[in-house]
Design goal:
This protein is mainly alpha-helical. It has eight helices and three strands. About 55% of the residues lie in helices and about 10% in strands. It is globular, with a radius of gyration of 21 Å.
């Protein structure tokens, strides 16, 4: 059988070409995300060498509160990766406590989720303070994003949903309201 024909078990040439392009884009995306491929950095940008310091910086400036996986590809956001670095650190509880007073509103919610299975007294105090703070924060759950009430997020963190999700690495479905 002619290898260029479309009969039998051979894949059409067009499908092979598309698959090769998709694979190439995937490899480039992974290299960019991993940091192995050099990218232009502004000259004044300083990236800390210490993973805990870098993770703390990521959560401190976080513009949104995200689920463990986002987007169609189910990528793990940098904030969740940073949360895991802090959570697994011997100084994690201390770092989460510090973030409660220094981070953006989204970063404070990540810190609260980190305290969920650690310091129960600090968790209860922080949950009360964040609930009283009020307001909204941008969230991304899977492919859906938008503002959500901080008090509502605090309630779901109290139930342990977010923390379990960050540890396990999969999105837990949101129950209907």
């Amino acid at each position: 059988m002619d290898p260029t024909s479309h009969g039998g078990s051979m894949l059409p040439q067009r499908a092979v070409s598309l698959a090769a392009i998709a694979w190439s884009f995937g490899v480039v995306a992974l290299l960019l995300r991993s940091g192995l491929m050099p990218t232009a950095q502004p000259p004044s940008t300083h990236i800390p060498d210490d993973p805990l310091t870098l993770a703390t910086s990521v959560l401190r400036a976080s513009p949104r509160f995200t689920s463990a996986t986002v987007g169609y590809a189910g990528m793990t956001p940098n904030e969740v990766l940073a949360w895991r670095v802090i959570f697994l650190s011997p100084d994690g509880q201390k770092v989460f406590t510090t973030l409660l007073s220094t981070a953006s509103p989204a970063g404070k919610l990540f810190a609260l989720a980190g305290l969920r299975y650690g310091d129960s007294l600090a968790f209860v105090r922080a949950a009360s303070q964040l609930r009283a703070m009020g307001g909204t924060v941008q969230t991304v759950r899977g492919c859906l994003g938008g503002p959500e009430a901080i008090a509502d997020i605090v309630s779901t963190i109290e139930q342990g949903d977010w923390t379990r999700e960050f540890i396990v690495g999969t999105t837990i479905p949101v129950p209907p309201r």
